[in-house]
Amino acid sequence: SVLKPSVYVPAHYYRQVYVRNVLSFIFFWITLGVAGLYYYTLGWLDTLFYICLVALLFLAVPFINRANHRVGRMLFCLIPIWLTMFVTLYFKLHEAQVTSIIYFDSRFILMVTPVLPGIVFRLQERSQLFICMGSAAVFIIFYDLIHEFAGAGYYQMGFNDPSYYYINYIVSVTCLVLLLGILLLRSVMQSS
To answer: Rounded to two decimals, what is the model's pTM?
Structure first.
């Protein structure tokens, strides 16, 4: 099976690589579903190309793992983080149908992404764990600064909700609590 790790994967990484391959395959279908939902509700948008590209990258991860399981695990964790941020900025800058909801939906994806490194990396792999979790944290905490720098800030795009910055604060605090919880859970799982 394509989802099973290659014989070159060390035994102590076998389960993590297998779980990541299965999750990558599932995320491929979820991403295609999101693309279909976007198409159904909004019609063809240029952003759909990038969403389909994300789906194909998820599909490629099990094949990349056959060549190098460390690179495959990093890509599995970083693809949803970096491409979510790219796609959300692209959509806000290049699509005509910009509504305030798109300032929140990508945050949901970014809030979930720190779970992935907690699943596929051990605490001994600190650099990979912190690069992946740190990317998610930076994009969540500095979400508005990144958007404003790109010219796609919430208020720059003409929206005006006085509670918007309060929501940013809540999302940032929730992200930090989630990150600490993931690291704590990972350490408990490894010690048992």
So the answer is: 0.80
